[in-house]
Design a protein that fits this description.
The protein is mainly alpha-helical and 140 residues long. The protein has eight helices and two strands. Strands 1-2 form a two-stranded parallel sheet.
Length: 140
Amino acid sequence: MMQECFDRMNDGLISLNAWILTHHADVVACESNREYWVPIHDLLDGIVPVIVGNASDVKASTDIKNQIYSILDSEVFRLSAVLSDLFETSGKMLHQGLIKGMPADDLIALLPARVRKREADLRSVLSQTLSPASLFRLQI
């Protein structure tokens, strides 16, 4: 196991990203105090899994994810039936596009080819309309 410390300002985050890529890290663990882990997680999302060392922060992140699943499920908007993880890159793109009111064709065009293979399923879900209240609540 390799260990290194980086400053949490932009230069430190850039150095962290370069170090992780250079060393071909499989996973990154970071000690967490309050929201300090968020820029690290956002920087590395989709590059390498990030394990956060503070249980209350992990719980807060999990609570937000559960809230989003709950909002979509309450509308019978089963995006989770099409995407394995709503919080990976494709899920985040769809989430933002839904909030902005983008049409299904535009949303699907944003997605990588591997996700577009399920276009019929995506269209089935995206043909549904979310209520204004749910769209507002999704702006978490």
